[in-house]
Every structure is written in structure tokens, then in C-alpha cells.
Amino acid sequence: MNCPRCSDPLRTYSFRGHQTNGCETCGFVGVAVNHESEPVEIESWQDALDRFKEA
Ligand SMILES: [Zn+2]
């Protein structure tokens, strides 16, 4: 799979148990398409607040 922006090969990252495709060249980040339907983990309000503080 290649980056839709710059066509460089995408790297696969693991993020909180989910796999995400990202491009180191241009910073594109996209969520991988899963073959199986997995429950979507909704970010908790506390996590959102923590992330906001760190930003
Ligand atoms: Zn790219």
C-alpha cells in the first residue's frame, strides 16, 4: 500500500491495539481497513483531556 499523497510506501503503526497506516515522508496518517469488523474503541473523555494537556 502506498501513500495517496506522495506514493511512498506506507508504514504500519500499532496504535492502542489498532493498526494505522502512516507515511513518514509527508506525515499522512490513515486508518487501515480491517477485513473483520472490530469494535471501535471510542476515546474516553479523560484520554482526550490528557492529550489536550500534553499538546
Ligand atoms: Zn506520503
Mean pLDDT: 78
Biggest pleated-sheet summary: 3 strands, antiparallel
Helical content band? 10-25%
Q: Strand content of the residues, in percent? A: 15-25%
Number of domains: 1
**Spans with pLDDT under 50 lasting ≥5 residues?**
none
Bound ligands, named by name, code or SMILES: zinc ion
- Summing up helix and strand content along with how strands pair, one would put the structural category as alpha+beta
Tally of individual helices: 1
Organism: Natronoarchaeum philippinense
Protein name: Transcription factor zinc-finger
Please tell me about this protein's structure.
There is one protein chain. This protein has 55 residues and is α+β, with helices and mostly antiparallel strands. It is built from one helix and three strands; from the N terminus they run βββα. The chain has a three-stranded antiparallel sheet, with no helix packed on it. A hairpin with a 2-residue loop joins strand 1 (11-15) and strand 2 (18-22). The site of zinc ion (ZN) has 8 residues, from loops. Residues 3, 5-6, 8, 23, 25-26, 28 line the site of zinc ion. It comes from Natronoarchaeum philippinense. This is Transcription factor zinc-finger.
